[in-house]
Amino acid sequence: MLSPAEYDAFAAAFTVLGRLHIQPADGQTRSDVIGLLHQWPLDSALSQYSSRGLELLAESAQRAENDDAIITDQDTLYGISASAKVPPYESVHCGQDRLVFDRQTLEVRQEYAKLALQAPKYNTEPDDHIGLELDFLGRCCIAALDGHDMAQELAVSFTKEHIVTWMPAMLAHASQEATTAWLRGVIALTQGALETWFTAIGLTYPHE
């Protein structure tokens, strides 16, 4: 059982990271995030990924990386408007036919429904996007804080049945393909958050 403070920290981290993976951050969002790096909710000493992620985001600000560079980087990495270097969907990594909207997508949809949630672009974009799965973990933590009986169990089972099966390997690949310090920082911070989460629930993060 995690403490309320731990749930709160993971909720904040996963919801922010989920949003940053779903849509490229504009200048104001990046400024807001960088301005709060010293308040990152998870202890960066618990994961080298986290400390590296914070360094990369600060480096992005020092380089004055602009919207065009970051949007292009995330677009080409995740295939927002064209083919992806690293598809951000679980089914593409885990499904036998490597398709979007495959069995894994529907399984994830069923998990969301256990908290009365559904993807914002239901039946239009796949439910198993990395950003949506991270956000769901955050929402499970929020529900646990609110006393939802099954929220912690749901977060742990979702991690074991979905997150661990594809996200660490996908993030390792994405970290090699991303070109901006900003996106590499977001990826590293995500790896760190997951490693810290895995440790908290008794799992070992698979290093590539």
On the 0-100 scale, what is the average pLDDT? Answer: 94
Helical proportion?
55-70%
**Residue runs with pLDDT of under 50 for 5 or more positions:** none
Determine the CATH superfamily.
TorD-like
**Run of helices and strands:** HHHHHHHHH
- Count of individual helical segments: 9
What is the total domain count? 1
The radius of gyration is 16 Å
Shape: globular
What's the level 1 CATH class? Mainly Alpha
Keywords: Chaperone
Protein name: Molecular chaperone TorD family protein
Pfam families: Nitrate_red_del
Provide a descriptive summary of the structure in words.
This protein has one domain (4-201): Orthogonal Bundle (TorD-like), CATH 1.10.3480. The chain is built from 9 helices and no strands. The chain has helices spanning 4-22, 27-35, 48-63, 67-78, 90-94, 103-113, 130-145, 151-177, 181-200. Helix 1 packs antiparallel against helix 7 and helix 3 (48-63) packs antiparallel against helix 9. The chain is globular, with a radius of gyration of 16 Å. The mean pLDDT is 94.
